[in-house]
Write the structure tokens for this entry.
Amino acid sequence: MTPPMNRPDRAAALLKARSRATATPADPSWPLCLAEDLRDIRADWKASAEVCAEAAWAARSAGHSVLGLLSPEDVTATDHDPITARALAHLYLSALRFDFRCPTLQHLVEQLAEPMPQPLDCYTRALYAFALLGQSRPEGLAVMDEVLAEAGEHPKTLHVLLHGLWLGQDLDRGAERLLALSSRPALATGTDPIVLFRVAGALRRLGRYDEGLDAVDRAIDCLPPGDTSVHADLVRERSLICTARDLHQHQSHTRTSSGVPS
């Protein structure tokens, strides 16, 4: 049995595993190597979520999505040890999330849950909530509440849920729920451009246009230099807020001019 690591050694091992996984994104063997590294470290679900989400995003950004390196059968295979199986699921499901493939993500998690003797880990259930929320399915709200009761202030998990609320445009009180979630300590730093981006969209949906513009401008200010992909999303959101505000003002002016109370 591998002896337990102390905290500094474990942190260094996780950093090394993350670096190895992102060094050669075109190498088809890196997902399994990362899963095995996490097994050797005896990573818990939180560490697995953090490393796998970042690795899946880096691979996608480099043009080598995990979806092209693993298959659903790799994720649902029953011959892996629990830590390896969980890491492969985190990688593949995260890649589905980044591509907004909500029905596929939902179906795969339901497949994973069928033969499992124990409940799925908290992060996998958060990804399931994302899949439901992203389709504006109300049962996603119940799954989200269950996850929140267990996740505490784990940032990666909260970001997944925030993403689902942002994507689910037809959820009951979805924008209000997003703002409430964004106020939790792990997210309410005021310096996370992704959180501010999601908040700006929620404020736009609520007709709070000036607050939305303030949020998106702060998000742009918080971006690292050269982050062109997120910058484009923020500029697009800013344009949407300005268009919605201008349309609202025009409609209000038209109603007032015609004598119709606004």
